[in-house]
């Protein structure tokens, strides 16, 4: 059983709902994806984290996430969404999770997702979270 904390480490059981930003999902996203803790998630950091996610779900390590492996990956993301209280936090997790779906990353439409396909999706995925369009994700992008 793969840990969902590896897939989407932003949703932890210890999430503080008293977070100053008022959105626990945003706080957790920054804590886990801002690898060097400078308050900014760059495309490089997003790429590295997505690689970690990819390899944690490529169970047989053949460089491809196939349908069987996607079952577990989809389940892990669904669990993370279900754990969030309804509201902006859940909507945010949904958006982030959708960006890691097979549909979003199977660039050549052959039904599986390769490491390079998943990695190439990082920039577009980050752009969907980057609401103010400055090319990086900061806590400011989560103001709602
Ligand atoms: Ca950073
Ligand atoms: Ca595989
Ligand atoms: Ca931004």
TrEMBL record:
Q: Which UniProt keywords apply?
A: Signal
Keyword 4Fe-4S on entry:
no
Does the entry feature the keyword Transcription, yes or no?
no
Signal peptide as annotated in the record: 1-20
Species annotation: Mesobacterium hydrothermale
Looking at the record, the residues that make up the EF-hand domain are: 117-144
The name of this protein is EF-hand domain-containing protein
């Amino acid at each position: 059983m793969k840990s969902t904390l590896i897939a989407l480490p932003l949703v932890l059981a210890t999430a503080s709902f008293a977070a100053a930003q008022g959105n626990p999902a945003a706080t957790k996203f920054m804590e886990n994806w801002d690898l060097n803790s400078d308050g900014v998630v760059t495309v490089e950091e997003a790429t590295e984290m997505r690689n970690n996610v990819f390899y944690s779900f490529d169970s047989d390590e053949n460089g491809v996430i196939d349908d069987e492996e996607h079952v577990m990956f989809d389940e892990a993301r669904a669990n993370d969404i279900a754990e969030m209280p309804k509201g902006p936090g859940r909507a945010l997790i949904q958006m982030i999770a959708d960006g890691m779906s097979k549909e979003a990353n199977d660039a050549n439409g052959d039904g599986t997702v390769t490491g390079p396909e998943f990695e190439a999706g990082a920039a577009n995925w980050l752009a969907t979270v980057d609401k103010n369009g400055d090319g990086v994700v900061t806590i400011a992008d989560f103001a709602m």
